[in-house]
Write a structure and sequence with these properties.
CATH superfamily of the domain at 223-323 in chain B: CO dehydrogenase flavoprotein, C-terminal domain
Number of strands of chain A: 5
Structural class of chain A: alpha+beta
Structural class of chain B: alpha+beta
CATH superfamily of the domain at 59-135 in chain A: Beta-grasp domain
Number of helices of chain B: 11
InterPro entries (chain A): 2Fe-2S-bd, 2Fe-2S-bd_dom_sf, 2Fe-2S_ferredoxin-like_sf, 2Fe-2S_ferredoxin-type, 2Fe2S_fd_BS, Aldehyde_Oxdr_Iron-Sulfur, Beta-grasp_dom_sf, TAT_signal
Largest sheet of chain A: 5 strands, mixed
CATH class of the domain at 59-135 in chain A: Alpha Beta
Strand order of the largest sheet of chain A: 2-1-5-3-4
GO molecular function, one term (chain A): metal ion binding
CATH topology of the domain at 223-323 in chain B: Enolase-like, domain 1
Order of helices and strands of chain A: HHHEEHEEEHHHH
Largest sheet of chain B: 5 strands, antiparallel
Oligomer: heterodimer
Distance between the termini of chain B: 51 Å
Protein name (chain A): Periplasmic aromatic aldehyde oxidoreductase, iron-sulfur subunit YagT
CATH class of the domain at 223-323 in chain B: Alpha Beta
InterPro entries (chain B): CO_DH_flav_C, CO_DH_flav_C_dom_sf, Diverse_Substr_Oxidored, FAD-bd_PCMH, FAD-bd_PCMH-like_sf, FAD-bd_PCMH_sub1, FAD-bd_PCMH_sub2, Mopterin_DH_FAD-bd
Strand content of chain A: 5-15%
Helix content of chain B: 25-40%
Keywords (chain A): 2Fe-2S, Iron, Iron-sulfur, Metal-binding, Oxidoreductase
Chain lengths: ~210, ~325
Amino acid sequence: MIDREPPSRNAEAASRPFPTVIVSRRAVLQLAGGAASLATIPDASAQPAPASGQTSEALERVRLIVNGDARELELDPRQSLLDVLRETLDLTGTKKGCNQGACGACTILLNGRRVVSCLTLAAMHDGAEITTIEGLSAGGELHPLQAAFIEHEGLQCGYCTPGQIISGVGCIAEGHAGSPEEIQFWMSGNICRCGAYPGIVAAIADAAERS
Amino acid sequence: MIPFTLEKARNAEQAIAAAAAGARYIAGGTTLIDLMREEVERPERLVDINALPLAEIRVENDVLVIGALARMADVAAHPEVQARQPLIAESLIEGASPQLRNMASIGGNLLQRVRCPYFRMLDAPCNKRDPGSGCSALDGLHAGHAILGTSDHCIATHPSDLAVALVALDVTMRVLGPQGERSFPVEDLFRLPGNAPHLEHTLLPGELIIDVQVPAGAYSRRARYLKVRDRASYEFALVSAAVALDIEGGQIRQARIATGGVGTRPWRMRAVEEALAGKPPQRQAFEAAAQLAVREARPLRDNHYKMELLPRTIVRALELAGEVA
């Protein structure tokens, strides 16, 4: 018989030096003190609080239905729909890439149509229905296009993926996913700098065929 | 973005009154918000016109009428547009991205600002942004800039694809302002830069675009828009050509041609059109006529390639249009 030493409590402790609490990167940034950590983010307009000396005339009362939930908001007219989703509603699945309408990372469905949320003012969409990546799955099941992105490896770093998937949902709904060439043309508003395009096109083609 | 007030107009009178008092119209916002964020545009008052009933697409006495608030995607997908004026549908599909086409209005498309990099670069001289400061593109990055209609003060091209198609098709536009309604050719909307490139269009203060009216021509259905660019899609034109042909008995009766990416405004090619009249729709005639396109062109150091690319693009577009059944 070989004597086995019981697993060292010390070794276990070393591998888990802190109590297991899942803390998101975002929560850490918020805890670390907004001003200091956010000062390195170039676009200060993301913050609802106006810069010193610049106060907006009035806040706009806006009602949005986001992923099925009605939200009552008071917004500075300067806030883009993207910034409201990310900063006010904490729906950070929608990504800020270029913030000038060129990359598609911020694509959402606005009243069922795919749009870039960075180039529209939230205050102009009172009563609108919005679907973000967070609202795509139902009852714990992935949306078929989300599942297809996993199956076909339609991503590498993943930053463009929420925008790609929402845009792909729009592309399929519009009836423009009939061939790889058609998908390429109608998905050209979504840039992937990792170059995962073959997987993205395959995923959309697959999901379109099954839908 | 500097602070501004945002108001919603419930009718055209309200909108025009606000604009006459200094407000800027906002519809899709895809150009304006982008430039406001860069502080190239600094309006202090916006009037949202999206509630106005100006998004309709209809046919009146063979004239296709497209409301100024109709979205690019909806116009391109409309059966009457596709059947009657395929050039307009094609020019729209070749412009912007699907997301932007879902947002951008027809009126805003015509009024979009230039894509010269110096226009957006606040620390670089630009006569369009800061009149009298100079033009950085003349000796700077100008491979994408104009060879027609330029001045010593500005060489930026007009970026709209739709406008090129509308100018080719003799489209008129209807505007409503404090002094009432008027109509004029879309071609007359655009000013040459001359010595005042900050003045881009001929709208009077407060005037609101109501619709564009596309007449039916014998050439309307045999029409193609060809866009040559650095990427296969979602990129501004290096050179583009909107071409419509009326062919009967093996002869061109009428040609309509306008080009993009080469002019400081959408550039109608009347000399080329006249040279094609009465000719057979064949490559030799196309090539001879297309040479006239660059007769008055003034290329710069890095956009000389357009002297060759422009006639070739016109020839290829003519061939594609000739192939339309």
